[in-house]
Write a structure and sequence with these properties.
By secondary structure, the protein is mainly α. It is built from four helices and two strands; from the N terminus they run H-H-H-H-E-E. The protein has a domain of 106 residues: Orthogonal Bundle (Helix Hairpins), CATH 1.10.287.70.
Length: 185
Amino acid sequence: MIFFLVSALRLLRAVIRGIRKDHEFRALLGLFVVTLMSGTIFYTTTEKWGIIDSLYFCVMTMSTIGYGDFTPSTPASKLFTILFALGGIGVFAAMVSKIVAIVLERQKAKVHRRPHLKKHRNPDALEESPKPKARSKSRPEPKLKKAEDAPGRSNTGSRPKPRKVPDTQHRPARSEPPSKPKHPG
């Protein structure tokens, strides 16, 4: 239950952040609300469903869940449902992808800020830490060993010297136990 509440809070924060800072999100949200309202009004008037049942049907259709507990009965509502599903699923998918983009953008911004912050004893006091200095060019680079000087190599060729390994895996095959002589009856 706590996980659900935390996830709902994160979703609400992302929606609020999108409304405040992103004009594309505001346009998508407006289109989402208009699509839901138009479907709800249509099904309430045509199918004579209640407002909650009509809204429920619209959300189930847009999110592609479609339990099937409500079905349109008239030819006009069936045609509307086809168009509503084609348009509504696209609007729903665009809305979900925009919310995900907002959440990921915020997490990316947090990750990029962390290396430059230095924590002090007081966690409320944060200041920028000095950036690491570039490596000095005056220090000599460490020299790598030549292939001939590597352990296990001879100076005469590039093949490694064979190492002697104790033979522990070769064991003689087990012999069958002697069979007992058969006694006649």
